[in-house]
Design a protein that fits this description.
The chain has about 290 residues and is an alpha+beta fold. The chain contains seven helices and 16 strands. Strands 8, 9, 10, 11, 12, 13, 14, 15 and 16 form a nine-stranded mixed sheet that branches. Strands 1, 2, 3, 4, 5, 6 and 7 form a seven-stranded antiparallel sheet that branches. The longest helix has 19 residues, at about 275-290.
Length: about 290
C-alpha cells in the first residue's frame, strides 16, 4: 500500500487545489496537540458521493459542537467534494473532509486560531477483507468503554473520540480478531470501533443499541429505513452483553463497513443469515440507485 503522504494528484486545501505532497500541517497546530479536529468519511459509488449533504451537515454540526466555525458554506463544501472526486477521477472510493484549528495559539485556549479545511479522496474497496464480508468478521470485547455523554461531545465525528477505538482495534487484532465490540459507560453494548452494530433474534426482529453515548451513523439510519421497508421490526434499546447468547445473527453498519456480517463476538457465535445478506444487497442497490437518480 502506498503511504497516504506519498500519493499523487490534488487535495482541496483551504479553497485551492494543491499538489498532494504539498499539503502541509504545522507540527504546532492546535488540532494535532489538543484534538480540535472534526472530519467525515464518505463513500463514492460510480462517481457519486452517497448522502453527501447529510455528511456535510454533520461535519458542520461537529465543528459547532467543538466550538469553531468552518469558514465555508455547506454548499461550498459540497461543491468542493464533487470537484475533488472529478479531479482525482475517483469512481469507487472514499472522501475525507477534515477541519482543524491551526497554529496561531499554543496551549488549551484556541479562540484566535485559523480554521483549516481539507478534502482528500482516493479509490478504496472494501473496508474488511471481501472474504470476511461473506463469512463474517470476528470481534472481541474491548477493555475500553465509550465515555459518559456528559464527558465528551459524543454526537460528533471528532478526532479525539477515536483514540480508544484505535487502542481497541489494535488489542483485537493482537488477539486474532478483526475488530472490537465496545461497551458504553454503563456496561451496555455500544458499537464497534468504527461502525454501529445490529443483532437478529430468533423471531426475525432486529435489535440495535440506542445511540445516546456514541454516533448515530448515517448508514445505521439508512439500514433501519431499509429494514422497516421490508416490514422487519427494529428495536432501538439498551442491550446487555449477556443478551448476546440469545441472538442468532449480527452485523455492522458504517460508511466504510457498509453492511458487514459478524460471525462471533468473543465466545458468542452468529450465523450469516439470509436477512443480513438481503439487507446488504438492498443497501448496495440503494447506493447505486442514488447515482442513477
Amino acid at each position: 500500500m502506498i503511504p497516504y503522504d506519498k500519493r499523487s494528484g490534488k487535495i482541496w486545501y483551504n479553497g485551492e487545489l494543491v499538489d498532494w505532497s504539498e499539503v502541509k500541517v504545522h507540527v504546532l497546530s492546535h488540532g494535532l496537540h489538543y484534538a480540535s479536529c472534526v472530519f467525515e468519511g464518505e463513500r463514492v459509488y460510480d462517481g457519486s458521493i452517497f448522502k453527501l449533504e447529510e455528511h456535510t451537515s454533520r461535519l458542520f454540526y461537529s465543528a459547532e459542537r467543538m466550538g469553531f466555525e468552518i469558514p465555508y458554506t455547506e454548499d461550498e463544501i459540497n461543491a468542493a467534494c464533487k470537484k475533488i472526486i472529478t479531479t482525482q477521477k475517483v469512481e469507487n472510493g472514499y472522501v475525507r473532509p477534515v477541519a482543524w484549528r491551526g497554529s496561531e495559539m499554543m496551549a488549551i485556549s484556541a479562540q484566535k486560531t485559523k480554521i483549516h479545511v481539507a478534502i482528500a479522496t482516493w479509490e478504496w474497496g472494501s473496508y474488511f477483507d471481501p472474504k470476511l464480508k461473506v463469512e463474517g468478521i470476528k470481534l472481541n470485547i474491548s477493555s475500553w468503554r465509550r465515555p459518559a455523554p456528559n464527558t465528551i461531545p459524543w454526537d460528533t465525528k471528532a478526532s479525539g473520540l477515536y483514540m480508544i477505538c484505535t487502542l481497541s482495534k489494535h488489542e483485537a487484532e493482537k488477539q486474532g480478531y478483526t475488530d472490537s465490540l465496545m461497551l458504553d459507560h454503563e456496561g451496555n453494548v455500544a458499537e464497534a470501533t468504527g461502525a454501529n452494530i445490529f443483532f437478529k433474534d430468533k423471531n426475525g426482529e432486529l435489535h440495535t443499541p440506542t445511540p445516546d453515548s456514541f454516533l448515530d451513523g448515517i448508514t445505521r439510519r439508512t439500514v433501519i429505513e431499509i429494514a422497516k421497508s421490508k416490514n422487519i421490526k427494529v428495536h432501538e434499546r439498551k442491550i446487555k452483553p449477556e443478551e448476546l447468547k440469545s441472538f442468532i445473527g449480527c452485523f455492522l453498519t458504517g460508511t466504510a463497513a457498509e453492511v458487514t456480517p459478524v460471525s462471533c463476538i468473543s465466545e458468542y457465535q452468529f450465523k450469516v443469515c439470509q436477512m443480513i445478506i438481503d439487507l446488504n444487497e438492498s443497501y448496495l442497490a440503494l447506493v447505486k440507485k442514488r447515482k442513477a437518480a
